[in-house]
Fold this sequence. Notes:
Blueprint: E1 16-19, E2 67-74, E3 82-87, E4 92-98, E5 101-105, E6 120-122, E7 125-127, E8 134-136, E9 142-144, E10 153-159, E11 162-168, H1 169-174, E12 194-200, H2 204-215, E13 222-225, H3 246-249, H4 254-259, E14 262-265, E15 270-274, E16 279-282, E17 287-295, E18 299-301, E19 314-315, H5 320-330, E20 334-338, H6 342-351, E21 357-362, H7 369-372, H8 374-386, E22 389-393, E23 397-403, E24 406-412, E25 417-419, E26 422-425, E27 429-431, E28 449-450, E29 462-464, E30 469-473, E31 479-481, H9 486-500, E32 512-517, E33 520-526, E34 533-539, E35 544-551, E36 554-561, H10 566-575, H11 582-586
Parallel strand pairs: 12-13, 12-17, 13-14, 17-29, 19-26, 20-21, 20-26, 21-22, 28-30
Antiparallel strand pairs: 1-2, 2-11, 3-4, 4-5, 5-10, 6-7, 7-8, 8-9, 10-11, 15-16, 16-17, 18-27, 23-24, 24-25, 30-31, 32-33, 33-36, 34-35, 35-36
Helix pairs in contact: 2-9
Pfam family, one: Pyr_redox_2
Keywords: 2Fe-2S, FAD, Flavoprotein, Iron, Iron-sulfur, Metal-binding, Oxidoreductase
GO molecular function: 2 iron, 2 sulfur cluster binding; metal ion binding; oxidoreductase activity, acting on NAD(P)H
Amino acid sequence: MGGCLSKSKPVEVKVELTLLEKEKEADVMSPNGKASPLSECRPNGALGHCSDEDSAAPLSLYKPRDYVEASVCHVKDMENGQMREVDLGSGRALLIKEHGEFSAIGHKCPHYGAPLVKGVLSKGHVRCPWHGACFNIATGDIEDFPGLDSLPTFQVRVEKDKVIIRANKQDLQSQKRSKAMARCSAVINSSTGFSHILIVGSGPAGLVCAETLRQEGFTDRIVMCTMDKYPPYDRPKLSKSLESTAEQLRLRSIDFLQAHDIELLTEKEAVAVDVKTKAVTFQDGSRMEYRKLFIATGSKPKPMNYKGQDVRNVFHLRTPEDANNVARLANNKNAVIVGTSFVGMEVAAALTDKAHSVSIIGIEAVPFRKALGEKVGKAIMKLFETNRVKFYMLNEVSEMVGHHGQLKEVVLKSGKVLRADVCVIGTGSGPATGFLKQSGVHMDSKGFVPVNKAMQTNIDGVYAGGDIVTFPFPGRSNKKVNIPHWQMAHVHGRVAALGMMGRPTEIKTVPYFWSAMFGKSLRYAGYGEGFDDVVIQGDVDELKFVAFYTRSEEVVAVASMNYDPIVSRVAEVLGSGKTIRKRDVETGDMSWLIDKGSQ
């Protein structure tokens, strides 16, 4: 593969630092270094974008000591299409040169803190190397998910051939900002059983829907209800970081939601929807009417048949308490994982440094074979075996045997008996849509809710998103598909919100998925369902590879380990509407993927 996929290193830049003692004429310069007529000039010359702390106050209201200014490079040090991470003394920024113009934004992805300098710069946005989120380089706004926050922007000017950045110190420290949101102007008692928009589910689809409505100027009531007892939290981390608390996993605080007039009702499970009276009934007997409804209830574990259903210490990983209990019970004990789903495998990996033994039971011969192919699946299986995980494949559970009600053994259908003190079932999930059965909202035979391009169901004013839907996917000629990814749920929430506001937009995203096991990350982009071949470049056994999944001579998905930012680069190409042919990736020459001039 040569050096065409070699990792780019952030460039260290020496700076001339100037802490401002007084306001200067230069404070109102636009990015190109010319004096701006706007005395309330925004960073990067854009108007109306600010951090939470900034509200929307003009720059002139800030005290000079709140700012830092630095000369970061010579104007000729960077070519078009290049990015540099630069140090301003009080923090770092990402300096970008595109089409002869300089801009500066936060250098860390607000999602998990990835260094954006290692990402992909293309057509006015930078794509995160880890999980594919995209940010506009002029405004810092998030344009594709995952994540909720945008980036701060910093003022750039050119003076005597030197590139100078002026930044708010607080923004340099936070490295993220929330988009400005409208407030609710409707006068409604919080006990009133009516909401203009009712959101059922507080995962990424529901949360992004609520925030998008406010960001786009919606000023009526929004109520979001969830069967969870916590504010929205980062569920994918549960299986990777078993000891994390709900507080540590939190996506938005109660205070944040209240400040933006997003009402959250926890431990509020919907049990019925009546589309004729436009009302949702909850398990506690209460009822709420709506004008528009967004259903995003996510997945629920698939039931598994075995003897001993009442034995304790057998878990489906659903809540922070589940994860915490699994970690506690597995300490120096025997853990058994049933199922080779990503969740099950991540839990197994997380337990290897805690448990006395970790065993995995799988119905297939090789984990991830259906999703990633046999070669990649076998290489990952070998990684687990190297970390003393035992596999019992082509097998199923017959019985959970307890002693005084607590798990002691797992009996397999093959007759094998495994010692077990704690068991996690990760055999897959299905849509949590049982409560819609008599509602009139159409569901398919598997319980998925079909929606149109605007995420609307067959009922006018009733929208759905996330794991529970099949939606028209542009990457497959608008065939309706189900893609239960965390990132995709964010997209659904935004599209649904815009649809509710009468501004329908189409899904323009490349599905992006990730997993982490033993400190190694797997990244995946595209929709590989039904792939008929896998073209692998690199060394699978060394877990340093990129795998292209093809269908009828066309690349439909890509996965990699230790090859950042290749998956984000491929996502960028697929997202632009270009077709990648199988023959393009068989040669091993990836130079067509590399942007010229990127560092």
